[in-house]
Amino acid sequence: LFARPWEFVTSVARYDQLVPPAGVEVAFAGRSNVGKSSLINAVTGRNGLARTSNTPGRTQLLNFFSTADFGGAEPITIVDMPGYGYAEAPKKTVDAWTNLIFDYLRGRPNLRRVFVLVDARHGLKGNDLAALKALDTAAVTYQIVLTKADKVKPPALEKLVSQTIEAIGRRPAAFPQIIATSSEKGTGLDEVRATIAEIGGF
Ligand code: GDP
């Protein structure tokens, strides 16, 4: 699956712009600056696919990426969700994103999993918990992916993994496994790829 080239399909700012569901979708979500663009680029092997930037909140759309050639199989789409927790965005903009995201989460029958990215240095914060709550409400399975694992020492990472497993233990839509990644060092990328391939039935 990941030997094929991943390409940008479309950007969506409003619910009515959504393309009809086809094949399987997985989405990436997380706080602004968590390393979402870097991870999508690293996992797909396409450097410019998702924009990497130090300006939090720049990715305000749902961005859809897919592989060019499925060889007759159902396509898999990766959806890059807008980063959350960007306090400086105007309230009206935040409300518009929130509505789009909730509508998308609730109304997307082929959305099979949301990878919720969490910075390995910080762990789950208030707005991450709010996102998990929204996913539980929408009954969309989500899986925590720790980012920037290269920034913490192995014992601290181990501790965060067990704390996070405990924190999601009783959440109804949480997938119980956690993936630790570093886009910089390449850690965990194959695990993310394998997970997506498995979800897509490859
Ligand atoms: P996004 O806003 O969530 O899309 O985050 P970006 O992918 O733009 O990354 C935000 C910042 O974190 C950038 O300065 C990246 O270089 C840095 N970053 C992303 N992934 C990693 C990683 O795995 N390790 C380290 N050390 N830095 C990272």
From TrEMBL:
<dbReference type="Pfam" id="PF01926">
    <property type="entry name" value="MMR_HSR1"/>
</dbReference>
<keyword id="KW-0342">GTP-binding</keyword>
<keyword id="KW-0547">Nucleotide-binding</keyword>
<dbReference type="GO" id="GO:0005829">
    <property type="term" value="C:cytosol"/>
</dbReference>
<feature type="domain" description="EngB-type G">
    <location>
        <begin position="22"/>
        <end position="202"/>
    </location>
</feature>
<dbReference type="GO" id="GO:0000917">
    <property type="term" value="P:division septum assembly"/>
</dbReference>
<dbReference type="InterPro" id="IPR006073">
    <property type="entry name" value="GTP-bd"/>
</dbReference>
<keyword id="KW-0131">Cell cycle</keyword>
<dbReference type="InterPro" id="IPR019987">
    <property type="entry name" value="GTP-bd_ribosome_bio_YsxC"/>
</dbReference>
<keyword id="KW-0132">Cell division</keyword>
<protein>
    <recommendedName>
        <fullName>Probable GTP-binding protein EngB</fullName>
    </recommendedName>
</protein>
<dbReference type="GO" id="GO:0005525">
    <property type="term" value="F:GTP binding"/>
</dbReference>
<comment type="similarity">
    <text>Belongs to the TRAFAC class TrmE-Era-EngA-EngB-Septin-like GTPase superfamily. EngB GTPase family.</text>
</comment>
<comment type="function">
    <text>Necessary for normal cell division and for the maintenance of normal septation.</text>
</comment>
<dbReference type="InterPro" id="IPR030393">
    <property type="entry name" value="G_ENGB_dom"/>
</dbReference>
<dbReference type="InterPro" id="IPR027417">
    <property type="entry name" value="P-loop_NTPase"/>
</dbReference>
<keyword id="KW-0717">Septation</keyword>
<dbReference type="GO" id="GO:0046872">
    <property type="term" value="F:metal ion binding"/>
</dbReference>
<keyword id="KW-0479">Metal-binding</keyword>
<keyword id="KW-0460">Magnesium</keyword>
